[in-house]
Amino acid sequence: MSRPFIKWAGGKYRIAEKLNSFKPKNINTYFEPMVGSGGLFFSNPPKKAYLSDINSKLINTYNVIKNKAYFQELIDELYLFQDITHSKENYLKIREAFNQDDLNSINSAVYFIYLNKMCFNGLYRENSKGHFNVPMGDKREFSVDEENLIKVHNALQNIEIACHSYENIDPKKGDFVYLDPPYIPLDKLSFTQYSKSDFGEKDHRKLAKFCVKLDKRGVNYMISNSNTDMTKDIYVHSEHIQFHEIQVMRTISGSKNNRGMAGELIITNYNEYDGRLF
User: Fold this and answer.
1) 1 near 151, Cβ under 8 Å?
2) Nearest 5 degrees, angle CA 247-CA 16-CA 55?
3) What is the pLDDT of residue 190?
4) CB 244 within 8 A of CB 265
5) Where do the domains of the chain lie, and which CATH numbers do they carry?
6) What is the pLDDT of residues 156-200, one digit of tens each?
């Protein structure tokens, strides 16, 4: 079984067993339009899937790992980074190079993976110019998990990968969509920034309207988000919408004080679950 090759805010690999048990019994094509680190996907990769995200550098990295012609060069380049001296000076040089517009796809993927491992708490954050600006973290050595990258490479074969907003997916009746939007904050300090724009209340309400469209088309969907009254107000908009409360460990946050156990909601528009824990 493969694991996510990066850390990501709100990553779901730690609770994938619980999420898998709430999937519908029958799925034609699996859609994950806010894929991030792909925690749920990698925990039990389906044969037919469509993965997408608005982060172009993230999606480029997925595509490079998937590409048979690029994969070995990616591994070789990552091993070169394993041998360099990790320092603040080198980190800032790599971050600056990553933010250049003329990067080829392989170098961009190498930098993306390196910076994700070595930056502060595995965060991905961009400034108003769309440049990655997370400072260096406490980690002092970069290591290549080649075994897992090979598993990720194999899991992505025959999987469609695209860069666009969730609104551009086109699932049909019998398909399943897993939506993992940025958390509705438990408090003002909670980390919810996803790219160079915040995903706020208006965005959540817009997503909820999209879910209504999915429901009318006969598409099953599941949403995971923080357990707040606002979450229920936005997404539990009809009597047949189900929600389940679970406890999760938050490991990525802008504040160390906000890491720990927190309430989470699993919201579905169906009530016949797979029930299996993988």
Assistant:
1) yes
2) 105
3) 54
4) yes
5) 13-53+164-268 (3.40.50.150), 61-151 (1.10.1020.10)
6) 999 999 999 999 999 999 999 999 999 888 765 554 544 445 788
